[in-house]
Design brief:
The complex is a heterodimer of chains A (about 700) and B (about 300). Chain A is of the alpha+beta class and about 700 residues long. Chain A is about 20% helix and about 35% strand. Chain A has 14 helices and 41 strands. In chain A, the strands form twelve sheets. In chain A, strands 17-16-18-19-29-28-27-24 form an eight-stranded mixed beta sheet. A five-stranded mixed beta sheet of chain A has the order 5-4-3-6-7. In chain A, a hairpin with a 5-residue loop joins strand 34 and strand 35. In chain A, helix 4 runs antiparallel to helix 14. With about 300 residues, chain B is an alpha/beta fold. Chain B contains ten helices and ten strands. In chain B, the strands form three sheets. Chain B has a six-stranded mixed beta sheet with strand order 5-4-3-6-7-10, sandwiched between helices. A two-stranded antiparallel ribbon of chain B has the order 1-2. In chain B, strands 8-9 form a two-stranded antiparallel ribbon. The longest helix of chain B has 24 residues. The chains are: A alpha+beta (about 700), B alpha/beta (about 300). Chains A and B meet through strand 1 and helix 2 of A and strand 8, strand 9 and helix 9 of B. Strand 1 of chain A pairs parallel with strand 8 of chain B, so a sheet runs across the interface.
Chain lengths: ~700, ~300
């Protein structure tokens, strides 16, 4: 609401107000008539009979010129006063409008949605741009998208803002800022480590239209000045499903159980009505009370269910604040979750060994048998290229292959665990001399053999080595491993890394620096199979084996389908190599996905929430579900302040910079036009 | 003899043109004396008109003996009667006539002189007088070309007089002059009390009346602008006007209505009405316009 800025005191106004009457008085003085003798006033009298005027007002009635002059003087007076209203402006003259279109921006606490409000604000900002200002529009969720490069064209900017669509993705401001700063500071190279200023920097103002639900970034903003425009209302309430999956009933391992966790992201007590649907028909309903900011679990026994599509829906959510007000759930995206229960398939594990009693024993326990089908092969199969092993390893029939004191010539299409040896992964380097064959360099390198290494560190965060205590383990002899690039040391000793894991083309290779048993020659030269470590005798060993089975075999042998977040990538395994898979979206559309020689495929178009069916020749192959499952997005509380690039940025409460909008130029322009009109009128002599 | 503008009143080339013209009366008047004017009455003159059968009692002198000899019947020769015409030129000498370039009054005198000259040349009885004439110096009655200088002299001596009423002046004129002959009234008709009464007086006298309504250019297209106080030169009446385009338009409309009204009034009563403006040369007015309308030929 623009307010009038008074610039004069009352007596100045009075003087101003006295000017028009003064002009009128002068006009009357000027009206002294020149006497002129005429033959007869007979005709004149007749002519002016009805024009004959005596009163002041009639006299002024049609005196257009006087009015025009008064109007002109009035306009000039107003223009001289520099009239202004309280308007708004933007900071600077280069702008980057970052518009958050992540899942939380679909909250409906504002008219339309938060995204609509953000777009509205952005449009407002664009309208406030002065001639000569340039701006760009970037929408961001977990990935940024440049909707419009720097331009002066307001229409293009408005169009690009209108084109921004909501997504169900999570939020990452840092990616957006990287893009923005790269485009805003064209002089900077995109390489962070060699940030060289090669051209003059152009400062820009970064307007962030968001609800602030993004992780803090410590990126350098360069000469970007951030302005955070919080979008959303205080006290927006939301209950979301944070987890929904199928797992085995702890007490009855042959039965399945649906499990969900609900989070209340509000300061009010929530009452939630839930429905659980199996293949579209309701099998359970529940009503949960969730305290402010708390989480609540939901469990449902599914019995001996083998397969089925499960959907969990929050049908109703009511929030009761302490003050007694009721709120509504403002974000619908996280009110539904999907998963597909499926029969668990035991992992296929191949153990290539010439005899390793501790491991064989550990893999034959009841639990291990349920988790995995273990096949034993002797190392001789590695030499025979026609063996069954080669074919199966090449098409990825195994989930895990354990090589005990042996190495394959070619790495298999499977995860591997090397005991006492190292993977044969190699990279080819350009030859030193021309014409020579390319040099092959092993990725994995061993150090010198050591005796009595002592485990000093274990990566307890990694699923393979969690819950493992090695302080009571003695190792007699080991060959420490040089960590390959990209590798992680899971177990470190005082003499070098003992267990290292490294990725390889979608698989992972695990190497242990010592075998559990080996043929060791005694003083007489007779070789005898002996234990090289006391580990198999310790309680941490079966835990490690279970970790191994669950980590390498668990992904495939899970009880429910894979769930990814919107926009995430899904790795698919086709039954037949190079035969395309069909992925059907929840809304119906089908996408063909190419499958590699190794039977692998990736699918990226996961914007839509719900269950995706994967088929090959109309035969169902797999399912996966896309769920929001992101507490950061479900939490739709608006952040008043955010941290952007090491700077705390306060949210603006009033929308724009207050500015004085002056329009004296327009008034003066009107005055000049009026003057022209008056001049024309005068020369036409039609003055009345 | 005469004033400086006598020669101007009737320049020689105009005189030459006028000499060939004569005044035409639409009415037949019995002249008092034989004149050069052919009368419809048949009478004694040299111009043969017709024959008619002899009836006893006719003057034997007019019997055409030649015809009698040939046809053995008596015919009487009839000759055209020629007589003189009374011509009056009556000039409005009110102060309003003293405007324009040349002044309307001068133009009126010039016109009167020209018409009077035509009459003199044709042997008509010519009397040129102004309406405001004082009874003490009556206008002379003139006849014959040689009287031209007397007429011009008299015209030159005329001056615009004080304001008078047209009706009163017409009445005075009618009392003094008999109602026979042509009367040319040259006036601007600018009388606030109206001109109708004056014309009615004149009509009552059975004159053959020609009204030359003389207005100046300034009256047709007033070149005035600004805020003015218009003063009537006759009665000092004041009209305050701010001249504007609409007012000028309205004035012209009023003037047009005034002229139309006068023309209408005259046409209904058998008065021949001629509007005239003072920027039209006299010879063109007489040789062209008045000739077309039948005042002269």
């Amino acid at each position: 609401m623009p307010g009038f800025i008074n610039m004069l005191s009352w007596w100045q106004w009075l003087i101003l107000a006295a000017v028009p009457p003064a002009i009128i008085a002068l006009y009357f003085l000027k009206l002294k008539r020149r006497p002129l003798e005429v033959p007869s006033t007979y005709l004149w009298h007749k002519s002016i009979e009805d024009l004959h005027v005596n009163t002041i007002w009639q006299r002024l009635r049609r005196n257009l010129l006087l009015f025009l002059q008064l109007l002109l003087v009035l306009l000039i007076m107003i223009a001289v006063l520099r009239p202004g209203v309280k308007g708004a402006k933007l900071l600077g003259n280069r702008f980057i409008f970052l518009i958050d279109n992540s899942a939380s921006m679909q909250a409906s606490d504002l008219e339309g949605s938060r995204l609509e409000d953000a777009k509205r604000s952005a449009r407002e900002a664009i309208e406030l741009m002065q001639p000569g200002d340039v701006a760009m529009v970037v929408s961001f969720s977990n990935t940024p998208k440049v909707e419009q490069m720097f331009t002066e064209n307001k229409r293009a900017l408005l169009r690009s803002v209108d084109a921004i669509k909501p997504t169900s993705r999570s939020t990452s401001l840092s990616e957006a800022i990287k893009v923005a700063s790269g485009l805003a500071n064209p002089g900077r190279t995109s390489n962070d480590s060699n940030d060289v200023q090669v051209a003059e920097a152009k400062p820009a103002t970064l307007y962030i239209f968001s609800d602030g639900n993004f992780p803090e970034t410590d990126l350098s903003l360069g000469n970007l000045q951030p302005v955070y425009m919080p979008i959303g209302t205080d006290g927006a309430a939301n209950v979301g499903i944070a987890v929904f999956n199928v797992r085995r009933n702890d007490s009855q391992p042959d039965q399945l159980q649906a499990f969900a966790r609900l989070e209340n992201h509000s300061k009010a007590q929530a009452t939630v009505s839930l429905e659980l649907l199996l293949d579209g028909s309701m099998i359970d309903a529940a009503r949960l009370e969730i305290g402010p900011g708390e989480t609540q679990g939901f469990e449902r026994n599914l019995g001996e269910l083998e397969t089925g599509k499960l959907e969990l829906v929050i049908t109703e959510a009511e929030f009761l604040t302490e003050e007694g007000a009721t709120l509504e759930d403002q974000l619908a995206l996280d009110n539904r979750a999907w998963t597909v229960a499926r029969k668990s398939r035991p992992a296929n594990i191949l153990l290539v060994t010439s005899g390793c009693e501790p491991l064989e024993f550990a893999l034959s326990t009841n639990l291990a048998m349920r988790l995995a089908n273990v096949t034993l092969e002797s190392p001789n199969v590695l030499a025979d290229e026609k063996s069954d092993y080669y074919q199966r390893a090449a098409v990825g029939a195994y989930d895990l292959i354990i090589y005990d004191r042996c190495r394959p010539k070619v790495m298999p299409q499977a995860n591997t665990f090397f005991l006492g040896t190292l993977p044969t992964t190699a990279v080819e380097l350009a030859p030193e001399t021309e014409g020579a064959p390319p040099r092959r360099v092993d990725v994995w390198q061993a150090e010198k053999q050591v005796a009595w290494p002592k485990i000093i560190d274990i990566d307890s965060a990694h699923p393979l080595t969690q819950w493992i205590a090695m302080d009571n383990v003695i190792i007699f002899q080991a060959t420490p491993i040089k960590t390959p690039s990209g590798g992680t040391v899971l177990m470190d000793s005082d003499l070098g890394p003992m267990m290292v894991i490294a990725p390889r083309e979608g698989f992972e290779d695990l190497a242990l620096a010592f075998p559990f048993v080996d043929n060791i020659a005694d003083e007489n030269g007779v070789e005898e199979l002996r234990g090289l470590t006391t580990w198999p005798g310790r309680s941490s060993f079966p835990v490690f084996v279970l970790n191994l089975l669950q980590y390498f075999g668990g992904g495939r042998g899970g009880l429910d389908s894979l769930s990814v977040q919107p926009g995430g990538q899904v790795a698919l395994q086709g039954p037949v190599p190079e035969k395309p898979l069909l992925v059907e979206k929840p809304s119906g559309g089908e996408t063909k996905v190419a499958v590699s020689k190794l039977g692998r495929a990736t699918f990226n178009d996961t914007e839509e929430l719900g269950i995706y069916d994967v088929r090959s020749d109309d035969k169902p192959v797999d399912h996966f579900s896309v769920n929001l499952f992101d507490p950061a997005e479900s939490d739709i509380t608006v952040r008043k302040d955010v941290q952007v690039g090491r700077l705390p940025v306060e949210g603006r409460t009033s929308n724009w910079e207050p500015a004085r909008k002056e329009f004296w130029k327009w008034i003066l322009m009107a005055g000049f036009l009026l003057l022209l009109f008056e001049w024309w009128l005068y020369h036409r002599r039609v003055y009345v | 003899m005469g004033t400086n503008d006598n020669g101007d009143l009737l320049p020689p080339d105009l005189l030459a043109k006028l000499e060939r013209m004569e005044l035409v009366s639409r009415k037949i008047f019995r002249g008092r004396m034989k004149g050069e004017r052919r009368s419809r009455r048949k009478g004694q003159s040299v111009e043969f008109a017709d024959f008619r059968n002899y009836v006893p009692g006719d003057d034997l002198r007019f019997i055409d003996w030649n015809t009698y000899a040939r046809l053995d019947r008596l015919f009487l020769k009839i000759f055209m009667e020629e007589e003189d015409l009374h011509f009056y030129a009556l000039i409005d000498s009110s102060p309003s006539m003293d405007f324009g370039e040349p002044t309307k009054f001068r133009y009126a005198r010039q016109l009167a002189a020209a018409l009077g000259f035509i009459g003199l040349v044709r042997g008509d009885r010519v009397k040129v007088l102004s309406m405001g004439d004082s009874p003490t110096s009556p206008a002379p009655v003139l006849r014959g070309r040689h009287q031209l200088w007397r007429m011009l002299d008299h015209l030159a001596s005329l001056e615009p007089t004080e304001q008078f009423s047209l009706a009163e002046a017409a009445k005075t004129f009618c009392v003094r002059n008999s109602g026979k002959g042509i009367l040319v009234l040259i006036t601007d008709l600018m009388d606030k009390s109206g001109y109708e009464q004056a014309l009615r007086y004149l009509l009552a006298q059975d004159f053959d009346i020609y009204l030359i309504h003389l207005l100046s250019v300034e009256e047709f297209e007033p070149e005035v602008q600004g805020d003015l106080q218009l003063v009537d030169c006759e009665d000092g009446d004041v009209a305050e006007v701010t001249v504007t385009a609409p007012l000028l338009k309205r004035y012209k409309r009023t003037l047009g209505a005034f002229i139309e009204q006068a023309r209408d009034f005259c046409n209904r009563r058998g008065i021949l009405y001629f509007p005239a403006r003072n920027d039209v040369p006299i010879d063109r007015l007489i040789g062209g316009y008045l000739r077309q309308r039948g005042l002269v030929r």
